[in-house]
């Protein structure tokens, strides 16, 4: 297996991108962190919300046991996020949707910053904290358009309780979104993995699939990951600094 090269000046990547028609990008928490988004995970098992660890308050079981408390937690998270803005990495990727004939952006982030930067189609593998989903009819609504004094909010279509439209611990990815991402990863010429340790599956399998199908694989991350050796080029650095340098 080829060992990934580390470049200070990513000219080889720019050359590949100039020639590419189909580009696939997978982003993770590192991109959001550069905008000030906290991980909320409270490391080392520390409590993050009223004495509960992240994996408990953000779980499918908690939705069943105490949906209003889940809403309180996600209202708090949105309160933290609402003043944050997209950074140069988000802005560069938004431009790329008009640069390439086929461009796909898949993200593990739930903060909505890619959309805020202007990306029209984002495959949000883990959902979006700004969207609510009905637990009965599965209709979706923008949380900002719902009554913020009603928790859980009632579905505008059927009146049933709604929940945050994010993938929680104990849940699988939404039907269809991973399949679309996998199809596009398999068809791309260049695949970039940006700001993610690529440890969470099935999302982490997308770059592996792209490589298997012949894509040129590029990693942009401050630290090496378990995918670094698989990549053709691994660039160590912050996404907000590196991606604009790849943009013609």
Please, could you describe this protein's structure?
- This protein has helices at 11-19, 29-33, 54-57, 60-65, 67-81, 88-99, 113-116, 177-187, 205-212, 239-246, and strands spanning 22-27, 102-107, 123-124, 127-134, 140-142, 162-166, 190-194, 216-221, 233-236.
- By secondary structure, the chain is of the alpha/beta class.
- It folds into 2 domains: 11-37 and 85-126 and 173-246, 3-Layer(aba) Sandwich (Rossmann fold); 54-83 and 133-166, 2-Layer Sandwich (SIR2/SIRT2 'Small Domain').
- Helix 7 (113-116) links the parallel strand 2 and strand 3 (123-124).
- The protein is elongated and about 55 Å long.
> How many discrete domains?
2
Q: Quote the beta fraction.
A: 15-25%
Overall pLDDT: 92
Any idea of the CATH topology of the largest domain?
Rossmann fold
Computed CA radius of gyration, to the nearest angstrom:
19 Å
What's the arrangement of secondary structure elements?
Layout: H1 11-19, E1 22-27, H2 29-33, H3 54-57, H4 60-65, H5 67-81, H6 88-99, E2 102-107, H7 113-116, E3 123-124, E4 127-134, E5 140-142, E6 162-166, H8 177-187, E7 190-194, H9 205-212, E8 216-221, E9 233-236, H10 239-246
Parallel strand pairs: 1-2, 1-7, 2-3, 7-8, 8-9
Antiparallel strand pairs: 4-5, 4-6
């Amino acid at each position: 297996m080829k060992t990934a090269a580390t470049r200070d000046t990513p000219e080889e990547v720019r050359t590949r991108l100039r020639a590419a028609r189909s580009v696939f990008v997978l982003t993770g928490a590192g991109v959001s962190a550069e905008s000030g988004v906290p991980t909320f995970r409270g490391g080392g098992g520390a409590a993050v919300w009223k004495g509960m660890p992240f994996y408990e308050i953000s779980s499918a079981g908690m939705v069943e046991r105490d949906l209003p408390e889940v809403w309180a937690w996600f209202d708090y998270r949105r309160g933290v996020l609402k003043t944050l803005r997209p950074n140069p990495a988000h802005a560069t990727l938004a431009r790329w949707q008009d640069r390439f004939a086929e461009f796909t952006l898949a993200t593990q982030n739930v903060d909505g910053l890619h959309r805020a930067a202007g990306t029209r189609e984002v495959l949000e593998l883990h959902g979006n904290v700004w969207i609510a989903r009905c637990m009965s009819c599965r209709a979706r609504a923008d949380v900002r358009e719902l009554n913020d004094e009603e928790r859980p909010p009632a579905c505008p279509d059927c009146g049933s309780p709604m929940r945050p439209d994010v993938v929680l611990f104990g849940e699988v990815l939404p039907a269809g979104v991973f399949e679309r991402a996998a199809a596009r990863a398999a068809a791309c010429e260049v695949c970039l993995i940006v700001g993610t340790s690529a440890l969470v599956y099935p999302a982490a399998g997308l770059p592996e699939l792209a490589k298997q199908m012949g894509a040129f694989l590029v990693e942009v991350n401050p630290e090496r990951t378990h995918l670094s050796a698989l990549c053709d080029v691994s660039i160590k650095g912050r996404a907000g600094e590196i991606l604009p340098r790849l943009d013609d």
